[in-house]
Amino acid sequence: MENYSQFLKRYRDAEPESRIEIILENYAVFPGKINIIEAEMKFNIISEQEFLRSHRRGETGIRVNNSELSNPTERAAFNNMELDDAFKEGTLDSILKGIDNASEYEEDYRTLGVMKREFLLLKTFMKNIDEEDSEIVLMRLEENKSFNEIAIAIDLHKDTVRRRYNQIRLDINNELVACLELSSKTLKPTIQKGGGQDDAG
Question: Beta-carbon neighbour count of residue 130 at 10 Å?
């Protein structure tokens, strides 16, 4: 089974059309995946910070939750608040200072930001199309209903529902791929630069 790190990498490596498919295939659970990935990233960064502090104090290097503050709970709360602020403001440089794999965390952070923006874009698109079309696609994606169940719910023939759903999927690609191509410059800045294209903005 694919873990969240693998999911993040698959998303980052995917082309725009494939990223749309990934969102649609995981539409109902996509926000939850984003939240878990972000929580895991924060946990790992805090663990790395604690390791660095332990190492500076000349300890064995085992990752422990000892704190330089008198109250470990206060230290943990401060770390979490500081990290939350850095994630919101996009200022991870100071947080990642001294961490060996800082560049990997920065890459994951960029990917996470793109995932959030692209999901919101796709969600906005589907909320603002024809009301019945929106109902069809959201019943399919959010509620995992079959075409037959949707047809019964909105009093249409199953083949009509299937045809309209497939058309909506096509419309999503036609409308959003160009936007997601711009996001690719953020996801793969080194590739874009090596190919002689513009750097990520």
Answer: 10
